[in-house]
């Protein structure tokens, strides 16, 4: 199906403007796995953390809770420290509603990159912030988060490196790959704190956490009785198994290392691994058809992380032809834009069958962005991104509460004038 035919199929429309973001320098790394780790770490920080202060001058700060019983279950971070989460209790009409947000922050696919990772907050609770701001979908203010502000809101910290799905260890390097156990320990702990009585529950996640929310969506549903309204949200988690600018498969090669090193295969759904290789089953496009729980996919069509670290990483662009384009989409050449448009079409094709289900939701805007649910300016603000007149927070809320079916897909760049496009220079 050609791009014009596909656009006719989706019946899309929209408008919006570019938003210049804070300065951020893209570095070149000597080896591939370190590029992916550092790129995701820096991009996650730039994308998520620098937006806290702009739209929320006094955000709610929530303390870290370590899961004391986790070590007995072998549920530990890469360095063996206890995992943790941040919880802010619900109140009023939301007292029996629970929102679990799985933190993102990339992956590690080699001993070397995982050893480095365990010296950071992405691999050790020793290095985690003792308090973090709750903004966007985690905000406790109705004017910032109209549908979920008074729910029990939890952010589960990410300290394994395989989207909460690994199982194994490397004794020589003193590495614990216990992502699946961390997921289970966190959920079990929260169940004892009242989540087992939930009337409503939403599992969410951003980036690597968005992938985790897809991987664990059906498990999450099984925790609750049929009377509990359970759904899942994946923000910026639709990582595509795409050809990079050199004609290779940079992200597939990287994911292959993650899956093999951290023992992810045993925790991947058999509905996929019975038919495809384990690495393919770490890509959401091969998982979403078998998610029986209602799932909402929120993604930028030109996801900034995927453009920088998957489509045109240094290994695929050794001469830096894509450097300016990656820093600022306005500097992309016509042929580079054409390449990115083809990537968008592949993304739309990947969710076509998924979108046919009435229970699923979709919001794919034609922005150069990454993670739009945790940032206040993109989640719910006066100038937040929109498709038609529908912003992200209201789209997710309408879908969760069954107020309307949401299948929102933007027309192609540059038609959307509401985007908060990320510019890194």
From TrEMBL:
<keyword id="KW-0134">Cell wall</keyword>
<comment type="function">
    <text>Hydrolyzes acetyl esters in homogalacturonan regions of pectin. In type I primary cell wall, galacturonic acid residues of pectin can be acetylated at the O-2 and O-3 positions. Decreasing the degree of acetylation of pectin gels in vitro alters their physical properties.</text>
</comment>
<dbReference type="InterPro" id="IPR029058">
    <property type="entry name" value="AB_hydrolase_fold"/>
</dbReference>
<keyword id="KW-0378">Hydrolase</keyword>
<keyword id="KW-0961">Cell wall biogenesis/degradation</keyword>
<dbReference type="InterPro" id="IPR004963">
    <property type="entry name" value="PAE/NOTUM"/>
</dbReference>
<feature type="signal peptide">
    <location>
        <begin position="1"/>
        <end position="28"/>
    </location>
</feature>
<comment type="similarity">
    <text>Belongs to the pectinacetylesterase family.</text>
</comment>
<keyword id="KW-0964">Secreted</keyword>
<dbReference type="GO" id="GO:0071555">
    <property type="term" value="P:cell wall organization"/>
</dbReference>
<protein>
    <recommendedName>
        <fullName>Pectin acetylesterase</fullName>
        <ecNumber>3.1.1.-</ecNumber>
    </recommendedName>
</protein>
<keyword id="KW-0732">Signal</keyword>
<dbReference type="Pfam" id="PF03283">
    <property type="entry name" value="PAE"/>
</dbReference>
<dbReference type="GO" id="GO:0016787">
    <property type="term" value="F:hydrolase activity"/>
</dbReference>
């Amino acid at each position: 199906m050609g791009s014009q035919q596909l656009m006719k199929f989706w019946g899309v429309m929209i408008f919006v403007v570019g938003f210049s973001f804070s300065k951020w320098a893209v570095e070149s790394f000597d080896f591939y796995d370190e590029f992916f780790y550092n790129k995701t770490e820096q991009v996650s920080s730039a994308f998520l953390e620098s937006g806290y202060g702009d739209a929320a001058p006094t955000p709610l700060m929530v303390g870290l809770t370590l899961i004391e019983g986790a070590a007995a279950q072998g549920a530990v971070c890469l360095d063996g420290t206890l995992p943790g989460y941040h919880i802010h209790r619900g109140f009023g009409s939301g007292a029996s509603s629970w929102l679990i947000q799985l933190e993102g922050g990339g992956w590690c696919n080699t001993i070397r990159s995982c050893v480095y990772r365990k010296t950071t907050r992405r691999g050790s609770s020793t290095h985690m912030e003792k308090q973090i701001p709750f903004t966007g979908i985690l905000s406790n203010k109705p004017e910032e988060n109209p549908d979920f502000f008074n729910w029990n809101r939890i952010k589960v910290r990410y300290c394994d490196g395989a989207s909460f799905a690994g199982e194994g260890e490397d004794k020589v390097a003193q590495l614990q790959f216990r992502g699946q156990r961390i997921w289970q320990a966190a959920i079990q702990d929260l169940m004892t704190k009242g989540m087992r009585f939930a009337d409503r529950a939403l599992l969410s996640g951003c980036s690597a956490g968005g992938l985790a929310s897809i991987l664990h969506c059906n498990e999450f549903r099984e925790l609750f009785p049929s009377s509990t309204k359970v759904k899942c949200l994946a923000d910026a988690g639709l990582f595509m198994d795409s050809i990079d600018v050199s004609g290779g498969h940079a992200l597939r090669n990287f994911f292959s290392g993650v899956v093999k090193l951290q023992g992810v295969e045993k925790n991947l759904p058999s509905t996929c691994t019975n038919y495809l290789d384990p690495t393919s089953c770490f890509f959401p496009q091969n998982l979403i058809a078998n998610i029986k729980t209602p799932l909402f996919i929120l993604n930028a069509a030109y996801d900034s992380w995927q453009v920088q670290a998957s489509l045109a990483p240094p290994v695929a662009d050794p001469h830096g032809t894509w450097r300016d384009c990656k820093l600022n989409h306005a500097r992309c050449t016509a042929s580079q834009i054409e390449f990115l448009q083809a990537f968008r079409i592949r993304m739309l094709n990947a969710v076509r069958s998924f979108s046919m289900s009435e229970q699923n939701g979709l919001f794919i805007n034609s922005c150069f962005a990454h993670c739009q649910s945790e940032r206040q300016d993109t989640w719910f603000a006066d100038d937040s991104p929109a498709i038609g007149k529908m912003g992200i927070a209201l789209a997710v809320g309408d879908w969760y509460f069954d107020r309307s079916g949401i299948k929102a897909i933007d027309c192609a760049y540059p038609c959307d004038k509401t985007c908060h496009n990320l510019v890194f220079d």
